[in-house]
Specification:
alpha/beta; Rossmann fold; 3 domains; 6-stranded parallel β-sheet; 24 helices
Length: 670
C-alpha cells in the first residue's frame, strides 16, 4: 500500500507545480518514498493539535520542494485543503512557494539552502535544553521526541551546513535525524560539475551516525530510521540515494526535473507509468486516505498518554507548572523594569560591559533567557555567570559555546526560538561579523522570531585592529531589515532600557549595538525609566528658549554632542540634543511626536553617528548636516582615530558652529 501512497504524493506535487506553472517537482518526486515511510510509520504528530509539545519536528530544509510538504500535510489531516494544493504559489494561499512558519504544520520558514538544517539543529538543541530544565524523575514529558530534516545537495554545499553539522556532532544531538536526498542533480546539471566530496566521510568526521540506503526501498528506509532512533549519542545522517523526478519517463535523473513543471504531456506520461489515471489531476486513492488514518489512529494513544502525564504534572507540581506556562507565554515580571534599573551602577563604562552586568540580573528574572557567543564571550560580555555551559553530557546550563560559527549561530537560535518552550536565545559577536550571519538575521525578522543579537565593538573605535574589524556600514544596513529592532544605547541607563525593549519585543528580533570603549554616564543617580525610550528617540538636553538647532545622535557620539552643545550654549547658541537609540523606530512614530523632538519649520538638524551617513537624511526635510564616516577606518588607538576622523566634542562643536553660521546666512537671504 505504501507504494501507491508514495506515488500519490509525487503526483500531487507534480500536479501542484503544473497548475501553478511554477515550482520544483524533482525533489518531491524523488523523496516521496522517504516521506511516506516517515509520515505513515514513525513521525509523531496530531493535526488537531499542531503545536502539541510532544510532537516530532519535521523540517523541509530544501524549501523549494515545498509541494512535498504540503501534499503530506494535506494527507495527514492538517488544515491544508485540496483547494489549497490547487492554489500552490498563488496570492494569499496556505501553500506559498517555500514553507513559511506561520502556516499549519510548518515548523520553520525555509528557502535559503542550509538554514533549514541549521534550524533543525536549533530545534534539537532546544529539546535537550527544555528537557533538562523541566523534566525530573517523576515527570519526563519534554524532549522525548525526534527532529527530522530533509536536506539535499544544495544544503550540503552551503557553508552553513558545515558549521551547523559540526556543532550538532560536537554536542551529540542524538535525536536529530537528517535525510540527505542524494540525487546528484542541481540546476546546472550533474553535481560532478562542482561537488565530488565524500559526504559520508565528512559527516562521520563530524561525529555523526551515517547510513547509506536506496531512497526508494521502503523496507530499507524504515530500517534506517529505526537504527537512527536507537543511536542516542550522535545525530544521524541517512544518505538516501534517489532519482530526481522519479517516475517521469523523460525527465527523471535530469536537471530538467529540478525547477520547472514537467509539462502537460510529460505529466500525463508519468501518471501512466505510475498506473494513475492519465487525465485526472490531484487524484487521491481511498487506500491512501485509509493508510494515513490508520497510522493516526495508532498515534492517538501516544497523544493521550502524553496529555495524561502533563495533566498529572499540572496537578501534582502546580508551582512548577505555572512557571513553565509563564515561560512558554514569555510572561515578564511586572516589576522587571524597576528591578533592573534599581541595580545600575551609575558609573562610566563601555556599553558592552554594562550589557554583561545587566544580563546577570535579567537571567534571575527571565527563566527562558539563554545565551552564547561565537568564541568571543570574554569580549562581548555575554556569559551568564554561574549558569553552566551546554555540553554533550549536560544540557542544563544556560550558556552555549557556538565556536567561530556566526552564520550557524544565528540559524540555530532561530530553531531554538521556534521550538515553543519559551526560550529567548541571544548571542554575541563583533558588529562587523554580523555580515556573516545576515541571512539568518533576515530569517529571524521574516519569521518574527524573538532572537537577540548582541553586537559589540560597534565602530572605528575598535581601534588598533584596523579597518577589517571596524564596522562602517553595518549599523545602517541592519536598519534596512524590516522587523529587526536595532538599538544603539549611549550609556548604562540606555543599555538597560535596550535590553528591556528587546525582551518586550516578542514578535521579532533585536540587534543591540554596543561599544568597546568606555562612555560617560548621562543618567547618573536616575533609577526611573527613560520617558519615550520606546519611541526610538528622546530629548536628553534641552533649552529654555526654542532651539536654534537640533542634534540627533546615537551611542558613543551622544556624549560628544552634549559637550559640544554645552560649549555652544556658552556662546549664546541654544542647541537641543536628542538621543536616537533606535533610528527606524523613531521614523515609525506619528509626525506629531517627531515634531515634538525636532520642531517643524526651518530649525536646522545635525546628525552624528560613527558610521555611514546614508539614510540619516530621512529624519528631516529641513537643512541637515551629517557628521559620520563614509570611508573605511584605520589602525590606531581609538583616541587618535576620534581626533583624525572628527569624533571629538571639539570637532563636533567646530563643525556645527561653522555650518550654523552658513545655514543662518542662507535662511536670512531667503
Amino acid at each position: 500500500m505504501s507504494k501507491i501512497t508514495a506515488d500519490t504524493i509525487r503526483l500531487l506535487a507534480a500536479d501542484m507545480v503544473q497548475k501553478a506553472n511554477s515550482g520544483h517537482p524533482g525533489l518531491p518526486m524523488g523523496m516521496a518514498d522517504c516521506a511516506t515511510v516517515l509520515w505513515t510509520q514513525f513521525l509523531k504528530y496530531n493535526p488537531q493539535d499542531p503545536e502539541w509539545q510532544g510532537r516530532d519536528r519535521f523540517v523541509m530544509s530544501g524549501g523549494h520542494g515545498s509541494s512535498l510538504l504540503y501534499a503530506v500535510l494535506h494527507l495527514a489531516g492538517y488544515d491544508i485543503s485540496l483547494e489549497d494544493l490547487k492554489n500552490f504559489r498563488q496570492w494569499n494561499s496556505k501553500t506559498p512557494g517555500h514553507p513559511e512558519s506561520h502556516l499549519p504544520g510548518v515548523e520553520t520558514t525555509t528557502g535559503p539552502l542550509g538554514q533549514g538544517l541549521a534550524n533543525a539543529v536549533g530545534l534539537a538543541l532546544a529539546a535537550r535544553m527544555s528537557a533538562a530544565q523541566w523534566n525530573n524523575d517523576n515527570f519526563n514529558i519534554l524532549g522525548n521526541h525526534y527532529t527530522y530534516c530533509f536536506c539535499g545537495d544544495g544544503d550540503m554545499m552551503e557553508g552553513i551546513s558545515h558549521e551547523a553539522s559540526s556543532l550538532a556532532g560536537h554536542l551529540g544531538l542524538g535525536k536529530l535525524i537528517c535525510f540527505y536526498d542524494s540525487n546528484s542533480i542541481t540546476i546546472d546539471g550533474s553535481t560532478n560539475l562542482t561537488f565530488t566530496e565524500d559526504v559520508a566521510m565528512r559527516f562521520r568526521a563530524y561525529h555523526w551516525h551515517v547510513q547509506e540506503i536506496d531512497g526508494h526501498d521502503h523496507e530499507k528506509i524504515a530500517k534506517a530510521i529505526k537504527m537512527a532512533q536507537a543511536e542516542l549519542g550522535k545525530p544521524s545522517l541517512i544518505i538516501a540515494k534517489t532519482h530526481i523526478g522519479f517516475g517521469s519517463p523523460n525527465k527523471q535523473d535530469s536537471s530538467a526535473a529540478h525547477g520547472a513543471p514537467l509539462g502537460e504531456e510529460e505529466l500525463r506520461l508519468t501518471k501512466k507509468a505510475l498506473n494513475f489515471p492519465e487525465n485526472e489531476s490531484f487524484k487521491i486513492p481511498d487506500e491512501v486516505k485509509i493508510e494515513f488514518q490508520a497510522y493516526q489512529d495508532t498515534l492517538t494513544s501516544d497523544y493521550e498518554s502524553w496529555q495524561s502525564v502533563f495533566k498529572k504534572w499540572k496537578s501534582e507540581a502546580p508551582d512548577t507548572y505555572e512557571k513553565y506556562i509563564d515561560q512558554i507565554n514569555k510572561k515578564l515580571p511586572k516589576d522587571l523594569s524597576k528591578t533592573i534599573l534599581s541595580t545600575l551602577s551609575g558609573k562610566d563604562n563601555s556599553t558592552r560591559a554594562h550589557s554583561g552586568n545587566i544580563l546577570q540580573e535579567l537571567v534571575k528574572q527571565v527563566s527562558g533567557l539563554v545565551g552564547g557567543s561565537a568564541d568571543l564571550s570574554a569580549s562581548d560580555k555575554t556569559t551568564l555567570k554561574g549558569k553552566g555551559y551546554i555540553s554533550r553530557d549536560d544540557f542544563s546550563g544556560k550558556n552555549i559555546h557556538y565556536g567561530i560559527r556566526e552564520f550557524a549561530m544565528g540559524a540555530v537560535m532561530n530553531g531554538m526560538a521556534l521550538y515553543g518552550s519559551g526560550l529567548i536565545p541571544y548571542a554575541g559577536t563583533f558588529l562587523v561579523f554580523s555580515d556573516y550571519m545576515r541571512s539568518a538575521i533576515r530569517m529571524s525578522a521574516l519569521m518574527k522570531n524573538q532572537v537577540i543579537y548582541v553586537f559589540t565593538h560597534d565602530s572605528i573605535f575598535v581601534g588598533e585592529d584596523g579597518p577589517t574589524h571596524q564596522p562602517i556600514e553595518q549599523i545602517m544596513s541592519l536598519r534596512l531589515i524590516p522587523g529587526l529592532q536595532v538599538i544603539r544605547p549611549a550609556d548604562e541607563k540606555e543599555t538597560a532600557e535596550a535590553w528591556l525593549a528587546a525582551l518586550k519585543y516578542q514578535n521579532g528580533p533585536t540587534a543591540l549595538i554596543l561599544t568597546r570603549q568606555d562612555l560617560p554616564e548621562l543618567h547618573k543617580n536616575d533609577h526611573c525609566s527613560i520617558t519615550d525610550f520606546d519611541k526610538g528617540a528622546h530629548v536628553i538636553k534641552d533649552t529654555k528658549m526654542p532651539p536654534e538647532a537640533v542634534i540627533l545622535a546615537s551611542g558613543s557620539e551622544l556624549s560628544l554632542c552634549v559637550d559640544a552643545a554645552e560649549k555652544l550654549a556658552q556662546e549664546g547658541c541654544n542647541i537641543r540634543v536628542v538621543s536616537v537609540p533606535s533610528y527606524e523606530t523613531f521614523l515609525m512614530q506619528e509626525q506629531s511626536y517627531r515634531d515634538s523632538v525636532s520642531p517643524p519649520g526651518s530649525t536646522p538638524v545635525v546628525t552624528v553617528e560613527a558610521g555611514r551617513t546614508l539614510g540619516w537624511g530621512n529624519v528631516s526635510t529641513k537643512p541637515v548636516l551629517h557628521i559620520g564616516i563614509d570611508h573605511y577606518g584605520a589602525s590606531a588607538p581609538h583616541q587618535i582615530l576620534a581626533e583624525k576622523f572628527g569624533f571629538t566634542a571639539e570637532a563636533v562643536y567646530n563643525k556645527v558652529k561653522a555650518w550654523l553660521a552658513t545655514a543662518k546666512a542662507e535662511i536670512s537671504l531667503k
